[in-house]
Amino acid sequence: MATVIKAEPYDLPFDPRTTALIIIDMQRDFLEPGGFGAMLGNDVSLLRGAIEPCEAVLEAARRHGLLVLHTREGHSPDMSDCPPTKQARGALECGIGDAGPMGRILVRGEPGHDIIPELYPMAGEPVIDKPGKGAFHATDLELKLRNRGIKTLIVCGVTTEVCVNTTVREANDRGFECVVVSDATGSYFPEFQRVGLEMIKAQGGIFGWVAPSDAVIAALNA
Ligand code: C5J
Known about the structure:
Layout: E1 3-5, E2 12-14, E3 19-24, H1 28-31, H2 36-39, H3 45-48, H4 51-63, E4 67-73, H5 84-88, E5 99-100, E6 103-104, E7 127-130, H6 141-147, E8 152-158, H7 160-173, E9 177-186, H8 190-205, E10 209-211, H9 213-221
Helix pairs in contact: 4-9, 7-8
The chain binds dicarbonimidic diamide.
Dicarbonimidic diamide is lined by residues 25, 73, 158-159, 162-163.
């Protein structure tokens, strides 16, 4: 049964049976005080505002039986899946692969790489470990979505202008329709949050749609 999400730039028709929720990179190193993001001088409260709306969308998606997927940005301990250019970028004293405040930064298996407890995956929910910013790059995400007949993605997570935008653009090019949940996404930079959402819905929804969590939840409950 098709219903609509009250979204911008216009209502998005969707079928819950072919819709998945994807939560991007809600990892301790990005969101928690004392993590990598905070160590770089960022105000993590700007990202933490996304947690509650994200929890509400996650609860609704689970209750309605949607496929729920989580992603984590990170690398294998030997760093063989990390481009040297990525590792070098920023010329940080303590960067990706180095020992950080919550273990080696963005390395799989380290505490900081894991998902925050508030949004922890349930058994059976796929966790996509991605070495890039986009969740389709060098992962089996597309295969998993196609095998389940997924056509529409509800997208939450961080950061809006980096991994959320990159993933939505990848998804859009592959023919998926994406709605980004405005208050369930976050950026360390308020201007990037605003513009990151604007870019999705500009020009008649060039990359997709944007809607607040209450509109997405209302549509799921309809
Ligand atoms: C994400 C980043 N997840 N900002 N990563 O957006 O480096």
